[in-house]
Amino acid sequence: MSPTTRKRPTTSKKKRTTTSRSRGASSASSIKITTYNTALRWLFSHTDHERMRKVHYNKTTFDLDRMRKLLRAMGNPQEQLKIVHIAGSKGKGSTCAMLESMLRASGYTVGLYSSPHLVDLRERIKVNGEMIGQTDLTHILKTVADKTKRWRVSDRPSFFEIMTAAAAVYFAEQAVDIAVLETGLGGRLDATNVFEPLVCGVTQISYDHADILGKDLPTIAREKAGIFKENVPAITVQQTDEVTAAMREVAEEVGAPLQFAGQDIEFSYRFEASRDLGPHTRVCMTTPIAHYEHLPVPLKGEHQALNCGLAIAILDKLRGVGFEAPDAKIIEGLAETAIEGRMELAWPEPRILLDGAHNAASMTALIKAIGAHIPYDSLVMVFGCAQDKDVRGMLEQVNLGADKIIFTRAKKNPRAVEPEDLLSEFGEVSEKMAQLAPNLEEALNLAARAVSREDLICVTGSFYLVGEAKQFLKDLAAKRAAAAEAN
Prior knowledge:
Elements: H1 36-43, H2 64-73, E1 83-87, H3 92-105, E2 110-113, E3 125-127, E4 130-131, H4 134-148, H5 159-173, E5 178-182, E6 199-202, H6 210-213, H7 217-224, E7 234-236, H8 241-254, E8 258-260, E9 266-274, E10 278-286, E11 291-296, H9 304-320, H10 327-335, E12 344-347, E13 351-355, H11 360-373, E14 379-383, H12 391-401, E15 404-407, H13 419-426, E16 434-436, H14 440-450, E17 456-460, H15 463-486
Parallel strand pairs: 1-5, 1-6, 2-5, 6-7, 7-8, 13-17, 14-15, 14-17, 15-16
Antiparallel strand pairs: 2-3, 3-4, 9-10, 10-11, 12-13
């Protein structure tokens, strides 16, 4: 097939199985954990819904009682923790990162549990910005293996459940002052939903995992709002009218006091440019406790203003229950926020930007942010995504923002859409020519040959693809450094 052909391939697609690494679950007990690598082998032998092409979203597949049983076996470490719980369709990671940074600057020891990881599994579990050590994770996983080796198959925890329990154990061992937990999938049936938080937060709701969580926004919103708890303050950002109504219904059903930043909480933001910060967004928020005036949002993109406002509103609730966070420390911590894989300029020449935008709304925000923050002549987009996403919606935004497109797929994501299928569907929404690459390395090589000094390459559509790009560029930098040293 010609790289620029848009016709649907006549050859039949390879038939993929719907199994994941879960096939090895039956032999998990045969893996003896003696090293970090054997611990990873044991962990990845369990069902990993993140990598499955088809997931049955129900109380059997996502059994919270199974998660509770696992935590009991580990001594209920979550009972020692003070927790903030955050769900949403987009911006969860950014919100968690800003909240964690402000709390840490205020003098607290903060645990952060997030997903997915980009390069190293241990990115998911951090204390004060440092990943859990290999020795610590190995020890915890060995304990889980010992506790569960005689459990019947239906009670065996999944990959995500094990990681969630490991995070709780590690945070308890490290005696963190507070743990910030990001949901994995949805909220109502997510493994993190067995914890009792001090505050719940929900970021903006958009179409995400529509095949699993629901075909319409109110249904998706109810799943995300499933983290609400009786008498636990819940905060979210401005939503569409139908999402607002759905979230208020859930809050009333469970008895959670719900507030919307921008409605119940005075909040506003504006985009501006200054000599010291360049293009950026500033937020204002007024609460019964504090007044924040024109705080610079540390992350690029106007959409990050909503995430920043949510993080500040959550922190304000924590201040109301005894957490001391001086305004000066909040400003300092906010400014120091860093998060990988979001508008990350990862390579200088040619310029390569990495962003994990993985739904249509995130793609819209990304393209707008690039236009506002990064000057370029031509935008070459290397794109790959998962099959359970709003593929058509994402491709429509790609068409609007990119000058050249290269479709590819992440090697390690069984749920990835084949590049040929992306090209075929793109042909239904655009007259632009696009190319195919069977893997990321070839895609980047194609892109590099297509750009000049003032152009920009953007790798996006999937955190798996972004993680692969980070590893590839890291390895490339190491090779070049070694070659330079040898010469």
